[in-house]
Design goal:
single chain; 79 residues; alpha+beta; three-stranded antiparallel beta sheet; 2 helices
Length: 79
């Protein structure tokens, strides 16, 4: 007998900025939506110098990512 059957959705993205040498990833973002259950978020900064130089942009990207993940979670609750 199967018990405690769980499902999850994984979401990932990257925040990048333009530099003189081209586009560079500043941070990678990921989230896991457990169904049923909670949501976990991760943000991995790859280049602290670029992060601090572009902190407002990168933080906005992460906030936008969180909002999109929460929207996905709401949509899945309706299923």
């Amino acid at each position: 007998m199967i018990t405690n059957f769980n499902q999850s959705v994984s979401v990932s993205a990257a925040s990048s900025v333009k530099t003189p040498s081209g586009e560079k990833v500043v941070s990678y973002m990921s989230a896991n939506i457990a169904m049923p259950g909670g949501i976990s978020f991760n943000n991995s900064i790859q280049d602290t110098d670029l992060y601090f130089a572009n902190e407002e942009t990168v933080n906005k990207d992460f906030a936008d990512f969180q909002a999109r993940v929460l929207e996905i979670s709401k949509q899945n609750k309706g299923e």
